Amino acid sequence: VRRNHLVLAGPGSGKTRILVHRVAWLLRCQRARPMEILVVCYTRANALELRRRLFALVGRDARHVTIQTIHAVAISMVGIHRILADGDLTLETCLPVAAAMLRGEAMEEAEQTRQRDALLRGFNYVFVDEYQDIDAAKYELLSAIAGRAMEGDQRKLRVFAVGDDDQAIYAWDGASNDFIRSFEQDYHATRFIVPHSYRSPKAI
């Protein structure tokens, strides 16, 4: 449970199913508390689908699992009132602001820890769907959430990411699959490869 994991798989291979079943395993087999789990995805449609699948597996145990887009995570940390009041803050610029808040830059260590704990609200596990779709700002925020640069393993979140390192659908929006290719080194992660696709007939 304490290790980080990366699942590499192509379209139609069941990446999302693997992620949802891993969350269900944590809840039912490892008795993790739902409030400890953060699931990050790219779009609201993804978030709704992930929640639907998790409810189908574990029912009411899924109610307090946080499933949000990366922008929603940042907004919840920065605060919607601050975004509305500050004309310079947008959906995109709130990502580095949230990352900086998590890092507690220019703070004493004790104050930094208090702020980080308050922002994370007890999360111990972070799941990332379609990791190949992240860009530099999302990478920095996810790194800050996970506590990648922090000392001491017990202060870091466990990270479970799924993605396809051959995809670059959102390259036009700044996404780079360089981040998924460096995941193993970044997080000292165990890699799993799913070679099969269940979306295409065998003839293909």
Structure at a glance:
The chain is α/β, with parallel strands linked by helices. The chain is built from 9 helices and 6 strands; from the N terminus they run βαβαβααααβαβααβ.
> Can you list the strand order of the major beta sheet?
3-2-4-5-1-6
State the order of secondary-structure elements, H for helix, E for strand.
EHEHEHHHHEHEHHE
Q: Averaged pLDDT, please?
A: 87
Oligomer designation: single chain
Unreliable sequence segments: none
Describe the largest sheet: 6 strands, parallel
What is the straight-line distance between the termini? 37 Å
| Tally of helical runs | 9
Indicate the structural class.
alpha/beta
Give the overall shape, derived from the CA principal axes: globular
Strand content: 5-15%
Helix content: 40-55%
Strand count: 6
| C-alpha Rg (nearest Å) | 17 Å
Blueprint of the fold:
Blueprint: E1 5-9, H1 15-28, E2 37-41, H2 44-58, E3 66-69, H3 70-78, H4 80-85, H5 94-103, H6 109-120, E4 125-128, H7 136-146, E5 158-163, H8 178-181, H9 183-187, E6 190-194
Parallel strand pairs: 1-5, 1-6, 2-3, 2-4, 4-5
Helix pairs in contact: 1-2, 3-5, 5-7
Describe this structure in words.
The structure is a single chain. This protein is α/β, with parallel strands linked by helices and 204 residues long. The protein is built from 9 helices and 6 strands. The protein has helices spanning 15-28, 44-58, 70-78, 80-85, 94-103, 109-120, 136-146, 178-181, 183-187; strands at residues 5-9, 37-41, 66-69, 125-128, 158-163, 190-194. It has a 6-stranded parallel sheet with strand order 3-2-4-5-1-6. Helix 2 (44-58) links the parallel strand 2 (37-41) and strand 3. Helix 1 packs across helix 2 (44-58), helix 3 (70-78) packs across helix 5 (94-103) and helix 5 packs parallel to helix 7. The N and C termini lie far apart (37 Å). The relative contact order is 0.22.
